[in-house]
UniProtKB/TrEMBL annotation:
PANTHER family: NITRATE/NITRITE SENSOR PROTEIN NARX-RELATED, OXYGEN SENSOR HISTIDINE KINASE NREB. Residues 477-565 form the Histidine kinase domain. This is Histidine kinase domain-containing protein. SMART domains: GAF, HATPase_c. Keywords: Kinase, Transferase, Two-component regulatory system. InterPro entries: GAF (IPR003018), GAF-like_dom_sf (IPR029016), HATPase_C_sf (IPR036890), HATPase_dom (IPR003594), His_kinase_dom (IPR005467), Sensor_HK_TwoCompSys (IPR050482), Sig_transdc_His_kin_sub3_dim/P (IPR011712). The keyword Transferase applies. One of its GO terms (molecular function) is phosphorelay sensor kinase activity. It comes from the Bacteria. It holds the Pfam family HATPase_c. The keyword Transferase applies. One of its GO terms (cellular component) is membrane.
Length: 565
């Protein structure tokens, strides 16, 4: 019988005790605490001086190593922990237990690092779950015996089977915890992105937009500083547009970068996020060291992340985030910064497009007015001048004809004055003030009559009935009537105009008709310019629709309806 072997009863008692002790293992969910508990339990069960547990990562490399039995001073004095060579490596690569009386004589042994305590007897058992090796249990220096016995091997192999279940459960719990943490962070990110969307949607000013975006990002990620560089109009430079920090000055020693220059220019040029780790920055090898503000190099900032403000048509700027956290910004945080930057870039692009669109609309309107004035009013005034010149020549020979020419000139001037008033009527802004729709329509009609001298009347419900029309629908009908009267003044040459408003159970209906010269509806855009388009847009935005009927010489009728509910 092998020395040191237990009787059957003793072995069964030890295995039963091990089973009871191992039940505690599955309750431990911290991997480090579990490894320490396994090593301690193994050392106690077989009477070893030293014990250790090694855990492998998903690539099969030694990830963590927890020793038991050595003092903190002994651990500190060793140059490095085991790296997976020698007997430890053999056990990692194999699937069988290794039991040795003297590990120093085994050819697989790689020796010990300096200051390592002496070890002789050895017992190494792999912790396996099926075909997968999770880690190993190491025991050295059997107490009260020259080496570990076969019974010790049985006990530790049993412990390894319990440890496999416990380690697998701990890993599973850790993964679930990490997944829950990731989902929680993603939900928080989505909530902030939603807030950011509302911020960007409610901001028409770029400066306000980037200020709010920077503030929200810095508060959420606990950043030390944040900056935004915007692309200049020349397209080749980025200029500092915003800096936010309660403790730090500007991150960079300059406020303008060319595309491709430094991490700012490189981020804009590539359209990809980049990170700068300050502790690893080498002054002689990295140009960003030269660009960084000296105060930042002396501060607690450890990392600067730069993400491009991408839009549909290119890069509009760069967002810089400075972090003093010991842990670098992780992939999820970088994805969040990139998402924020994309939203800001898109919002900037939309804002600039809206500004350009408004400028273009103003230019188009100015061009239209200029053409109308040139082809209409200026030509009429020129014709009056020719008529008066002709009258001057007739004064001596035919006074009666001269008076006739002068009367004609006066009539033409009055007509021109009416045209000018029509333009004033069309261009002057007008709102539906603290009044109901019928009062507003009567005011429009009175102004139209005074400026055009055209006979116009209005009919409709009582003010109380008109007050039932929703405010947004009332405003739409008011502006449509205003546009219709302006078009009549400019184009119709009408003698009579009628404005009528009535209501059904579901709708409010407005009709504006005139007995003017009318037009071919197939050429309506040439006749009315932007007028009909504006009226259609207002009607559709209010949930209604518009219908226009006209024939040359037969006048024009505009019929529009909007819902009451």
């Amino acid at each position: 019988m092998e020395p040191g072997l237990l009787t059957r009863e003793q072995l069964e008692e030890r295995l039963a005790a091990l089973h009871r002790a191992s039940l505690e293992l599955v309750q431990e969910i911290s991997p480090e605490a579990l490894m320490e508990r396994i090593a301690t339990l193994a050392m106690e069960q077989v009477g070893a001086q030293y014990a250790a547990v090694g855990i492998l990562n998903e690539e099969g490399q030694l990830d963590r190593f927890i020793p038991i039995g050595m003092s903190p001073e002994e651990i500190r004095r060793m140059a490095h922990p085991p790296v997976g060579k020698g007997l430890i490596g053999a056990l990692m690569r194999g699937s069988s237990t290794i039991r040795l009386a003297d590990l120093t004589t085994d050819p697989r042994s790689a020796g010990f690092p300096p200051h390592h305590p002496p070890m002789t007897s050895f017992l190494g058992v792999p912790i396996r779950r099926g075909e997968e090796q999770l880690g190993q249990i190491y025991l050295t220096n059997k107490l009260n015996a020259p080496e570990f016995t076969a019974d010790d091997q049985v006990v530790i192999e049993m412990l390894a089977s319990y440890a496999a279940v416990a380690l697998f459960n701990a890993r599973l719990v850790q993964r679930l915890t990490e997944r829950e943490s990731t989902l929680t962070r993603r939900n928080e990110n989505l909530a902030l992105l939603n807030d950011m969307a509302q911020t960007l949607a409610s901001s028409a000013d770029i400066d306000t937009m980037i200020d709010r975006a920077l503030t929200q990002v810095m508060d959420y990620l606990k950043l030390e500083a944040g900056e935004i560089f915007l692309r200049h109009d020349d397209g080749n430079h980025l200029r500092l547009a915003a800096h936010r920090s309660s403790t730090l000055p500007a991150l960079w020693s300059k406020t303008e970068f060319r595309f491709g220059e430094g991490i700012i220019g490189q981020t804009a040029d590539s359209g990809q996020a980049q990170r700068l780790d300050l502790p690893a920055l080498r002054p002689s090898a990295d140009e960003n060291h030269h660009f960084l503000n000296e105060a930042i190099l002396q501060s607690t900032v450890r990392q600067i992340a730069c993400t491009p403000l991408n839009g549909a048509s290119g890069v509009f700027g760069v967002l810089c985030a400075a972090s003093s956290h010991e842990k670098a910004l992780d992939e999820l945080e970088m994805q969040f910064l990139s998402a924020i930057s994309f939203w800001v870039g898109t919002a900037i692009e939309n804002t600039r497009l809206n500004v350009q669109q408004r400028r273009l609309a103003v230019l188009e309107e100015r061009e239209r007015i200029g053409m109308d004035l040139h082809d209409g009013i200026i030509q009429d005034i020129y014709a009056v001048g020719l008529t008066l010149e002709h009258a001057r020549l007739l004064l001596g020979d035919d006074p009666a004809a001269a008076r006739q020419r002068i009367d004609q000139a006066i009539a033409d001037l009055n007509s021109t004055i009416r045209d000018i008033r029509a333009y004033i009527l069309d261009l002057r802004p007008r709102k539906l003030h603290e009044e109901n729709l019928m009062d507003g329509l009567r005011r429009l009609v009175a102004e139209f009559r005074a400026n055009t001298l055209v006979d116009v009347n209005v009919s409709g419900p009582t003010p109380e009935e008109a007050s039932l029309i929703p405010p947004s629908a009332a405003v739409a009908l008011f502006h449509i009537c205003q546009e219709a009267l302006a078009n009549i003044a400019k184009h119709a040459h009408a003698r009579h105009v009628h404005v009528s408003l009535w209501m059904t159970n579901e709708r409010a209906v407005l009709e504006v008709s005139d007995d003017g010269r009318g037009f071919d509806t197939s050429k309506v855009q040439l006749t009315l310019g932007h007028g009909l388009s504006n009226m259609q847009t207002r009607a559709h935005n209010a949930g209604g629709d518009i219908e226009l009927t006209s024939e040359p010489g037969a006048g024009t009728t505009i019929l529009v309806w909007v819902p009451l509910h």
